[in-house]
Design goal:
CATH topology of one domain: Thrombin, subunit H
Largest sheet: 6 strands, antiparallel, barrel
Strand content: 25-35%
Distance between the termini: 132 Å
CATH class of one domain: Mainly Beta
Number of helices: 2
Length: 274
C-alpha cells in the first residue's frame, strides 16, 4: 500500500487536487470580484447557507407564534360572541314567555274584572314527584298571604298558599289529598268535593256525588265558590267514574286542568267579590 502512494502516483493526485481547487475558485468568480474575495466567499458559503437556514427557521417560528396568538384571540372573541348570542336567545325566549303570560293575564283580568291578582314565579318543587307543593318567588312583602287561591294564567286552579314568608310562599297544590274543594259539574250541576288522589297518580277525585248523578267523560268540574276559592274556576275534567266504598254514592276521577309539570308562573287572587 505504501508503494502505491509513492512516486508518480503522489504527483498525479496532487495535480488533480490542485486542478479541482482551481476549477472551484474559477467557477465562483463573477461581477469583477477579486480572487481573494471569491475564495473567501467560497469558504464561507456553507456557513452563510446554514445561517440563512437558521434565520428562516426562526422567522417561521415567530410567524407561527404570532399566528397562534392571533388565532387564540380570534377564538376567544368567537366564544364571547357565541355566549352573547346564547344570552340574547334566552332573553328573547324569556320575553316571549312573559308576553304570553301578560296576554293571558289580560284575558284573565277581562274575564274576572272583580279579581285582584298578584303574580309570582315558581322557584322550586318539593322533593316528591307528585307536584303537591311548590315555592314561589314572592311573599308577604308583595301582598301574598296564606289562604290565597293560586291559578294559572288561564284561570285553572293550582292550589292555595299555605305558608308565606317575606319574600317567598308555599303553594299546596290540588294534587295534595289534604286539599278539599267544593265543586260542581258545570254541565249538570251535580256537586261534590274534589281532593287529590291517595293513589298518587297525578289525578283528582270528586267524592260525595249523588247516586243518580250522570257523569260523562271530559265534563268540566269547577269551583262552587267559598271563602278561599271564587266560583267557576276550572279544576279538571272527568276521566272515569264509579261507586264509592259504601256502594251508595258515586265518585269521579278527574284530570287536573292545570299542567303542573310545565308550571312556571302562578297568579294569586288577592281579592274578589263573591
Amino acid at each position: 500500500m505504501k508503494k502505491f502512494f509513492s512516486g508518480r502516483v503522489k504527483m498525479i493526485l496532487a495535480a488533480a487536487m490542485s486542478l479541482a481547487i482551481l476549477f472551484a475558485v474559477v467557477g465562483v468568480i463573477s461581477d469583477g470580484a477579486t480572487l481573494g474575495q471569491q475564495v473567501t466567499g467560497l469558504v464561507l458559503s456553507p456557513f452563510r447557507a446554514a445561517t440563512a437556514a437558521v434565520v428562516r427557521q426562526v422567522e417561521q417560528f415567530y410567524d407561527y407564534l404570532f399566528r397562534y396568538d392571533a388565532l387564540e384571540a380570534e377564538n376567544e372573541l368567537l366564544k364571547q360572541r357565541v355566549a352573547e348570542l346564547e344570552e340574547d336567545a334566552r332573553d328573547v325566549a324569556q320575553y316571549e314567555r312573559e308576553n304570553e303570560y301578560l296576554t293571558a293575564l289580560l284575558g284573565l283580568q277581562e274575564d274576572h274584572p272583580d279579581f285582584t291578582f298578584r303574580s309570582a314565579y315558581v322557584t322550586s318543587w318539593e322533593s316528591s314527584n307528585w307536584k303537591t307543593a311548590c315555592t314561589i318567588s314572592r311573599g308577604t312583602e308583595a301582598g301574598i298571604e296564606e289562604g290565597m287561591c293560586a291559578v294559572t294564567a288561564y284561570g285553572q286552579v293550582v292550589g292555595m298558599v299555605t305558608e308565606a314568608g317575606p319574600t317567598w310562599a308555599t303553594v299546596t297544590t290540588i294534587l295534595d289529598p289534604s286539599m278539599e274543594i267544593s265543586a260542581s259539574i258545570a254541565a249538570s250541576g251535580y256537586t261534590g268535593v274534589v281532593q287529590g288522589s291517595y293513589d298518587k297518580d297525578g289525578t283528582l277525585r270528586m267524592n260525595y256525588l249523588s247516586t243518580g248523578a250522570v257523569l260523562k267523560n271530559n265534563d268540566q268540574v269547577v269551583t262552587t265558590g267559598s271563602t278561599f276559592y271564587p266560583k267557576n274556576l276550572l279544576l279538571g275534567y272527568i276521566s272515569d267514574a264509579g261507586h264509592d266504598e259504601t256502594g251508595v254514592g258515586k265518585f269521579a276521577k278527574l284530570t287536573p286542568a292545570a299542567d303542573l309539570g310545565d308550571l312556571e308562573q302562578v297568579f294569586l287572587i288577592a281579592d274578589y267579590q263573591s
